[in-house]
Amino acid sequence: MVGCEGFRAMLLGKSGGGEELGAFYPIRPECQEDAPRTRFKPRAGKTLSPRRWHAAFSEDGHLDFAKVLRRIQRGGIHPAIKGLVWEFLLGCYDPNSTFEDRNQIRQRRRDQYTIWKAECTNLVPVIGSGKFVTTSIITEDGQPIIDPSTSNAQEWHVNNAVSDKKAIQWMLVLHQIGLDVVRTDRTLVFYESETNQAKLWDILAVYAWVDNDIGYVQGMNDICSPMVILLENEADAFWCFDRAMQRLRENFRCSATSIGVQAQLSTLSQVIKTVDPKLHQHLGICFSSQTLVGLIG
Amino acid sequence: MARRPDEEYDYLFKVVLIGDSGVGKSNLLSRFTRNEFCLESKSTIGVEFATRTLQVEGRTVKAQIWDTAGQERYRAITSAYYRGALGALLVYDVTKPTTFENVSRWLKELRDHADANIVIMLIGNKTDLKHLRAVATEDAQSYAEREGLSFIETSALEATNVEKAFQTILSEIYRIISKKSLSSEEPTPANIKEGKTIVVGGSEGNAKKPCCSSS
């Protein structure tokens, strides 16, 4: 089958709409006021239900993707299968592959993730411990910083000086990831759990290690968060995030004078100029002036 | 450009909020402009800003406060935002010594990119976390004196000294500006008085977003 957790979700999920989205992604009671509201309303019969999703596979696992895409576009995906569907939407799996192919790929990817994560844990033992850091663990010249306020600091943190440049660069960003993890989707009950926060931290930390060219840039936490919520298995969530980043990583590329997303904004400016010159003239002030980046916020 | 009566002001002062990630820059901004504080606030991506019009030394001043992402990698773009800034609030977290140690880096950054006459105020935020304090008031005070900065400790959560911090820096800017225009007898530069406020109008909506809304 597509994956054991996914299969479980498919079995457990009730077909058709009706269930409130809130039941799947509960918001902390004290945050109801502040949480952004979705305008999306699941409509019974229009939503891609677990039953229809299941029916879209042939016996050996080929997926009739065009059929489900139409439904997803019209009525969205039932929360019970969202993680599974996203794996296809993000391109983790080829719809023409078989169940067997995908099982093998999934296993291989999980093994790969385990190897990468072990490399990280080896350098910084707090990775994979269910805890994470929000203060610097290393100086720029590779000297470990022990935060006295953290218990068991010696077990978790870096104990010896580090000389490898790549490792230092990576370690320097770990507390930044932590600072953003504690500020990611905090209105959701899901992130009340330190384990779930640590899961997000681990994935972003491993990604920054593997893609050291981009590393970690603020904002990647928001892209990764839904994967962490939707995919129970950490490695599967990592690979979904990796797929999303393949499309988005250039936005995060920083040089001394620019950041990748600026190029995208000037493309947007060009498009608006062609499609709606009047709007462009109005926005022109923003596009041409220093406020360019204000538009991202 | 026609302006609504409620937007009339004598001066427009641009002030930037800088400092390490997670020291509370955005909450200082929301406390000052909307009297709001949000425990669940998100990290700032790139640059955001908000405005508030208030009385400073008997004049109506529109304070345009620019809030920037704290991560070093965003420096590439944020450095452009110092342009035209008359004041800078350099924030550290009184419970995190590294954020105070990095103040000197931020000062260097200001000296490299901002106007030489920019008014700088050092702010030690999060004084409500009394049991976690790790930077002594005296240390920061003497550092500020050495570097010629004004200094104040605040709590955006408890709304302690936030108003005072902004009032102080805006008054200081006003004194410098008014002194300048008196001595030179020349009209105040366009970016300071009136005019060129188009930039603000374009994104005015930013200031009206509810706390915690994803932007």
Structure write-up:
The complex is a heterodimer of chains A (297) and B (215). In chain A, 52% of the residues lie in helices and 0% in strands. Chain A is mostly helical and 297 residues long. The longest helix of chain A is centred in the middle third of the chain and has 25 residues, at 99-123. The two termini of chain A are 41 Å apart. The model of chain A is unreliable at 1-19 and 288-297 (pLDDT under 50). Chain B has helices at 25-34, 75-78, 97-101, 103-113, 137-147, 162-184, 198-202; strands at 11-19, 47-56, 59-68, 87-93, 119-125, 150-153. Chain B is globular. With 215 residues, chain B is an alpha/beta fold. Chain B is 32% helix and 22% strand. In chain B, helix 5 (137-147) links the parallel strand 5 and strand 6. Chain B has a six-stranded mixed β-sheet with strand order 2-3-1-4-5-6, sandwiched between helices. Chain B: Keywords: GTP-binding, Lipoprotein, Membrane, Nucleotide-binding, Prenylation. Chain B: Residues 184-215 are annotated as: Disordered. Chain B: One of its GO terms (cellular component) is endosome. Chain B: GO terms for molecular function: GTP binding; GTPase activity. Chain B: It holds the Pfam family Ras.
List the helices and strands and how they pair.
The complex is a heterodimer of chains A (297) and B (215).
Chain A: H1 4-12, H2 21-24, H3 50-55, H4 65-75, H5 82-89, H6 99-123, H7 153-156, H8 165-181, H9 194-210, H10 220-230, H11 234-248, H12 261-275, H13 277-288
Chain B: E1 11-19, H1 25-34, E2 47-56, E3 59-68, H2 75-78, E4 87-93, H3 97-101, H4 103-113, E5 119-125, H5 137-147, E6 150-153, H6 162-184, H7 198-202
Parallel strand pairs in B: 1-3, 1-4, 4-5, 5-6
Antiparallel strand pairs in B: 2-3
